[in-house]
Write a structure and sequence with these properties.
The chain has about 110 residues and is of the alpha+beta class. The protein has one domain: Deoxyribonuclease I, Chain A (4-Layer Sandwich), CATH 3.60.10. The protein is about 30% helix and about 15% strand. A hairpin with a 6-residue loop joins strand 3 and strand 4. The mean pLDDT is about 80.
């Protein structure tokens, strides 16, 4: 299933609907299926001391990041691409116009058991 995350100017209702649709899609899968959720969540999880967030984040956690953390903890996932130590120039996945700021907003989540 392909679903686009709400943009930064979206209302909280749209964000909750997005996570509900992910839950609905999970409901169609078998318990033994490998579930990978990935994409641009418009979230920053940084390198906070949160369970299953690795040390290679950028910046500080934003509201969308907090919501993503809440979702993956409830659903027993981990954010895999925060665990790889890369050179700082290779960590960011988004760059603002005129190169003023860089962030990591794209994530790959997988169930902890895998």
């Amino acid at each position: 299933m392909i679903k686009y995350a709400p943009t930064f100017d979206s209302e909280d209702v749209e964000i909750e609907k997005f996570y509900e649709e992910i839950e609905k899609a999970k409901g169609y899968l078998k318990s033994q299926d490998v579930i990978i959720v990935m994409g641009d969540f418009n979230a920053k999880v940084a390198d906070e001391s949160v369970e299953d967030v690795g040390p290679s984040g950028i910046g500080t956690v934003n509201e969308r990041g907090s919501r993503l953390i809440e979702w993956y903890q409830i659903n027993n996932f981990t954010i895999t691409n925060t665990w790889y130590q890369n050179h700082p120039r290779l960590q960011w996945t988004w760059k603002s116009p005129r190169d003023r700021s860089k962030n990591k907003k794209d994530y790959i989540l997988i169930q902890k058991r895998f």
